[in-house]
Design brief:
This protein is α/β, with parallel strands linked by helices. The protein contains 24 helices and 14 strands. Helix 17 packs antiparallel against helix 18.
Length: 608
C-alpha cells in the first residue's frame, strides 16, 4: 500500500489564484499583495512563463476553481488556450496602461475587469479574505467566485416493505456504510499523531510557518470537547475534511476518523431540541436540479456535514451569480423529537461570527424531498424534511448496517470490508495488507480471514494462481485452530472451488462445493440460504459438465429454499431463473428456457 503519509498526493486547496506576468517588478508586487491581503500559499501560484502557467492550470482538478490574473501583454495568447477550461472561474487583466478598456476583452465570457494599480489587487484579495472570514466555515470562498459543491445520493422510496437491502440504491447504502464504519471505530492513542504527521508533510504547507503553527496548536490542544470549535475555524482542518468527503478520498477520511467520531459526539451533546426550519443557499447545475425535480418524494443523503442557518436572509447572501449554475435555496424542516435521526446542533457558541445562527447537521444526514420549484426571483426552492432511520424504507438499510458492523470487531479490517463491499478493491487490498502488517505472527483469528479476503480480491482481478495461494494460506491456518466442521473453512472451500471452476477444473470444483455444502448443512440447516447458494454453485458446475439433470435438481433445491426465505421479487430469484434457463437451453428445450430468461429479466428490472 502507498503510505497515507504521502501528503503530496492530496491537494486540499479549493480556490487557486494564478498570476501570470512578465513585469520586472512582479516579485515586489506579489510580496506586497500577499502581505497586505493576508493571502496564504494555499491560494496562490505565480508564473513568468506562459507555457509553465498553462501546464499548471491544466493539472488542477476540474472540481477546483481558478481566479486568473494576467498582464495585458500576455492575455490574448494564453486566454485563447485556457479560457474555456472548467477550472477557470474568473479572469482579471492587470495593466499599467490606464487607457486600456474592458471592451477589448469582452469576448472572453469569464473576464471580470481590468486592474491598473497594486492597491486594486490588494482590495480584490482583501475582499475575498474578509468575506471568507465573515463566512468562517460556512463558506471558505467568496460566493461570487466559486460555490462549494454539495454532493448527495438519492434513494428511490417507491419500494415494497419486503424489498431487501441488496435491491436498494448501492451508492446510498455504501455511503451510509462508510460513514457508519468511520464513526464506530474505537479511539486509539496514535490517531492524532498520524493525522498531524500527514498535515506537517503536506507539500503545500511544509514550508508555511503559519500552517505549521496551526498544526502544532492542533496537536497540543485538540480534544473531543473542542472538535466543533476546530471545525468552525478557517484552517486546513475544515478544507481538508470537506474536500476528502467531496471527492471521497478514502485515505484522508480514514485519517479523519477520530475527528468525524468526535464531531458526531459533540453534535449529540448539543442537539437542537425544538422543531423548526433552517436554510441553506447553494449553487447547483441544471443536471442536479433536474435530478432533484424528478425525485420529489424520494430520500436524499448528504455526503458531508451540512451547514445551514436559522435566518433565510443569511442563506440568500450566499447565492451569487455563478456561470452555468443555478441559484438554489434549501428549506429544511426538522423535528428533533423523532427517534433515529442523525444529530444536528446550533454551533453558534463555537463560532466567531454568531450572527449567522449556524445549525450543523451530521455527515450523512437523510432528508425527504418534499418539493422543488422556481420562485418569482428566479431562485430554485428545494423543500426537505429530516428523516429518521425508523422510516419504513430506511429501517432495512440500517438493519443491514448494524448487521455488517457486527461482522468484525477489528476496525482496520472492518474498514477494508466496507471498501470491498463498495467495489473499491484496490483500496480494500491496501487495508487488508496493513492488517497483516500489524497483526502478531501467532494470530490465527484475523490473519486467515485477511488471506481469505485478499484471495477474493485476487479472484475479482483475474489473478487466479495468486488467489489459490492466498486461500491455501487461509485454510491452512484455520485448520490449525478450528474443527473441520467450522463454516469459515467451508467459505474458503467455496472460494477455491470458484477459482477451479474459472480455470476449467470442474471435477475439483464440484468436489469442493459438495464438501462445503456438507459443512454448511451441519452447521446451520439444509434449509439455510447458505445451502441455497452452494446448491446454485453446484448446479452451475454440473451445467458446465453437461450433467443437465443433476444441474436442474440443484437449481430447483436452491429455488425452493429461496421461496421459503426471500420476498417474491428478490434478485436471487432472477439468478435461479437465469441458471435454470441455461440448463433448459442445454437440453434443447428452448421454449422453457425462454420463459425462465424472461422471468429473470422481469425480476432484475424490478430489483437491480
Amino acid at each position: 500500500m502507498q503510505s497515507i503519509s504521502r501528503a503530496d498526493e492530496y491537494n486540499v486547496a479549493i480556490i487557486w489564484q494564478v498570476w501570470l506576468s512578465s513585469s520586472v517588478d512582479f516579485s515586489e508586487i506579489i510580496a506586497e499583495v500577499k502581505h497586505q491581503a493576508q493571502l496564504s500559499a494555499d491560494y496562490l501560484r505565480t508564473y513568468r512563463e506562459a507555457n509553465e502557467c498553462e501546464q499548471f492550470i491544466c493539472s488542477v482538478s476540474t472540481t477546483d476553481r481558478i481566479v486568473f490574473i494576467v498582464d495585458d501583454s500576455l492575455a490574448e495568447q494564453i486566454l485563447s488556450k485556457i479560457h474555456d477550461l472548467q477550472q477557470i472561474y474568473a479572469v482579471f487583466i492587470y495593466t499599467t496602461n490606464a487607457e486600456l478598456i474592458d471592451a477589448e476583452f469582452k469576448k472572453f465570457s469569464k473576464f471580470r475587469g481590468i486592474r491598473t494599480r497594486v492597491n486594486q489587487l490588494i482590495a480584490l484579495n482583501r475582499k475575498r479574505y474578509d468575506r471568507r472570514q465573515r463566512q468562517q466555515r460556512r463558506r471558505r470562498e467568496e460566493p461570487q467566485e466559486v460555490d462549494e459543491q454539495l454532493t448527495f445520493n438519492i434513494l428511490n422510496t417507491e419500494l415494497d416493505e419486503d424489498k431487501s437491502t441488496a435491491e436498494l440504491d448501492g451508492q446510498f447504502v455504501h455511503s451510509q456504510l462508510l460513514i457508519d464504519c468511520l464513526q464506530r471505530m474505537k479511539s486509539t492513542s496514535k490517531e492524532i499523531e498520524q493525522f498531524v504527521k500527514f498535515c506537517r508533510s503536506h507539500k503545500e504547507y511544509e514550508k508555511d510557518s503559519k500552517h505549521l503553527k496551526i498544526v502544532e496548536e492542533f496537536q497540543d490542544y485538540y480534544s473531543v470537547e473542542n472538535s466543533l470549535w476546530w471545525y468552525t475555524r478557517d484552517t486546513f482542518v475544515y478544507r481538508m475534511l470537506n474536500k476528502a468527503l467531496r471527492i471521497r478520498n478514502i485515505d484522508i477520511l480514514y485519517l479523519f476518523r477520530f475527528f468525524i467520531r468526535d464531531l458526531a459526539e459533540q453534535l449529540k451533546e448539543n442537539q437542537w431540541l425544538s422543531p423548526g426550519s433552517v436554510y441553506r443557499g447553494q449553487s447547483l447545475s441544471k443536471f442536479e436540479i433536474n435530478r432533484l425535480e424528478q425525485s420529489i418524494g424520494k430520500l436524499i443523503s448528504i455526503n458531508s456535514f451540512l451547514s445551514t442557518t436559522l435566518h433565510r436572509e443569511v442563506a440568500l447572501i450566499y447565492l451569487g451569480e455563478i456561470p452555468d449554475l443555478e441559484k438554489v435555496l434549501f428549506k429544511i424542516d426538522f423535528n428533533p423529537l423523532l427517534e433515529g435521526i442523525k444529530p444536528f446542533a446550533d454551533i453558534t457558541i463555537f463560532s466567531e461570527f454568531p450572527q449567522e445562527g449556524e445549525i450543523l447537521f451530521m455527515l450523512g444526514s437523510i432528508f425527504q424531498i418534499e418539493n422543488v420549484f422556481r420562485d418569482d426571483t428566479n431562485t430554485w426552492i428545494v423543500q426537505l424534511n429530516l428523516c429518521s432511520d425508523h422510516d419504513q424504507v430506511l429501517k432495512s438499510i440500517f438493519q443491514f448496517l448494524r448487521k455488517e458492523s457486527s461482522r468484525c470487531d477489528f476496525d482496520l479490517l472492518a474498514f477494508g470490508n466496507v471498501l470491498h463491499d463498495m467495489g473499491e478493491f484496490e483500496q480494500a487490498n491496501s487495508y487488508y495488507n496493513r492488517c497483516l502488517e500489524i497483526l502478531p505472527a501467532e494470530d490465527h483469528v484475523w490473519k486467515p480471514y485477511c488471506y481469505y479476503l485478499l484471495g477474493l480480491i485476487a479472484t475479482e482481478n483475474g489473478e487466479n494462481k495468486y488467489a489459490l495461494q492466498l486461500f491455501d494460506k487461509s485454510i491452512f491456518m484455520r485448520r490449525q485452530t478450528l474443527p473441520p466442521s467450522d463454516p469459515s473453512i467451508a467459505d474458503t472451500m467455496n472460494a477455491i472451488a470458484r477459482v477451479y471452476y474459472v480455470q476449467g477444473n470442474l471435477e475439483l470444483a464440484l468436489d469442493l462445493y459438495k464438501q462445503a455444502l456438507d459443512i454448511f448443512q451441519k452447521a446451520f440447516s439444509e434449509d439455510d440460504l447458505t445451502s441455497a447458494m452452494t446448491y446454485t454453485n453446484i448446479g452451475v458446475v454440473c451445467r458446465a459438465m453437461e450433467r443437465y439433470s443433476e444441474a436442474l435438481d440443484y437449481h430447483k433445491k436452491a429455488l425452493g429454499i429461496r421461496h421459503r426465505h426471500l420476498p417474491a421479487d428478490h434478485f436471487r430469484f432472477g439468478t435461479s431463473n437465469n441458471n435454470m434457463g441455461e440448463v433448459y437451453l442445454g437440453l434443447g428445450e428452448y421454449d422453457v428456457a425462454l420463459k425462465h430468461f424472461e422471468a429473470a429479466h422481469e425480476i432484475y428490472k424490478k430489483s437491480l
